[in-house]
Amino acid sequence: MQELLKKFENKQPEITFEWSDSESEAEGWVVINSLRGGAAGGGTRMRKGLDKREVESLAKTMEVKFTVSGPAIGGAKSGINFDPNDPRKDEVLRRWYKAVIPLLKSYYGTGGDLNVDEIHEVIPITESYGLWHPQEGVVNGHYHATEPEKIRKIGQLRQGVSKVLEDPDFTPNGPKKYTVADMITGFGVAEAVRHYYTIWGGSIKGKRAVIQGWGNVGAAAACFLAVEGVKIVGIIDRDGGVINENGYSLDEVRELFLNRKGNKLVAENQLTFEEINEKIWDLESEIFIPAASSRLITQDQAERMVNAGLEVISCGANVPFADPEIFFGPIGVWTDQRVSVIPDFIANCGMARVFAYLMTDNAEVTDKAIFTDVSKTIEKALLKVNSKNPEKVKLAESSFSIALAQLV
Asked: Which SUPFAM superfamilies does the record cross-reference, listed alphabetically (predicted)?
């Protein structure tokens, strides 16, 4: 498996598009790892300090993800090195999308990602340049859709991704309305844990969970886990966190979800980052959801969680371990050999799967149909892993073996 992984990691991407903004210090890259199936897909992220290597590794991650979520296309990613809090963000995004529109028309499909919002930024900006939908390149390049097919598929995409959730099973009660795009990734991360206990044995009810990151993915995953009877005992976010060793109730978790300021945790008696970071890794818990940035989990943190009774990690963040390797370095391997690690390309495939589902013929565009399809996709992937490896360790290694057999 390691040899296959190295071969896949070291293969040069098929297309690299570089951009330097004429009116700011922003720079960006589209990396298309391959045009497998005639197209490639992957979201657009923005952060200060991002580089081409990060975009390359994320494009490769997307290619592996499509072996689970479908469609059978190549992996890609867009990355912009710019401070997302800069007031010039909107202008930078507009110039960026203007530059990459030819790719998005022909063979590349994108969406939101870190610090770039699908509904409020990607869709309206690309639409203003004449793109029917950010996935239009996949519809053209992969499906070679006729005009009526294209109209239908893009109609389903437009309706489904931005759909305001009405079913109370899939959205927290509150004054704010949430869309499929807001909730689906966190839902999938939580469903991966539920399916894990069903397939490998044990009950999810009463388990304790620690959540890292309180953006859409971490906060939504916590809500869906709480519905299943999981006790959320700790949350660590960028600026601080909270601990409740008895576990927050479902109502308390929902309140923390609804009280977020942007993607930030807002809570009474919030500990500073230094205080929470010192304590949270030793909390007794069976479930860990890394849902913040990539490459944050250190060897020391992994060891402390394992010693505190950890059973399963469901990766909401791409490549959560602080390894330099693209996919699977020493910290990831060490952890995978001791607990059940559900890798990112299975656990957080929700949004990629929604795109794939909405591009199928006559997809049913209802809350229940979209969320059920994501749940079944994750269950199917985990059943495949279990048939290859019924043990509770080396799940990530087995998952990679299954995916790479389709790619290398």
From this structure: Aminoacid dehydrogenase-like, N-terminal domain, NAD(P)-binding Rossmann-fold domains
Q: How far apart are CA 196 and CA 342, in angstroms?
A: 9
- Cα distance between residue 86 and residue 24, in whole Å: 11
Helix extents (H) in 162-249: 180-200, 216-227
pLDDT means per 10 residues, the chain with 408 residues, are: 86 97 98 98 96 93 96 98 97 98 98 91 97 97 95 95 93 88 96 98 97 96 98 97 97 96 92 98 98 94 98 95 90 98 97 96 94 98 98 97 92
The residues, ordered by sequence, that sit 6+ positions from 401 with a Cβ below 8 Å of its Cβ are: 1, 4, 388
112 sits in the region (left: phi over 0; alpha: psi -120 to 50; else beta) called beta
φ, ψ dihedrals at 296, nearest 5°: -105, -30
**How many domains in the chain?**
2
Residue 152 placed within a domain: no
Nearest-5° angle of CA 158, CA 130, CA 146? 65
Decide which of 116, 144, 172 is a domain's last residue.
Answer: 144
Of residues 31, 395, 375, 388, the one with CA closest to residue 195 = 375
Distances (CA, A) of 120 to 113, 127, 133, 249: 12, 11, 13, 32
Assess if residue 3 is contained within a domain.
no
Residue 312's H or E segment, with its range, is strand 312-314
Chain position carrying tokens 């693209």: 326
Q: Are residues 133 and 211 in the same domain?
A: no
**Integer Cα distance of 222 and 126 in angstroms:** 32
Give residue 107's domain range: 11-144
Residue 159 lies in a domain: no
Give the CATH number of the domain where residue 133 resides.
3.40.50.10860
pLDDT at res. 263: 87
Q: Flag whether the pTM goes above 0.90.
A: yes
Q: Do 240 and 121 have their domain in common?
A: no
For tokens 């494009």, name the residue.
59
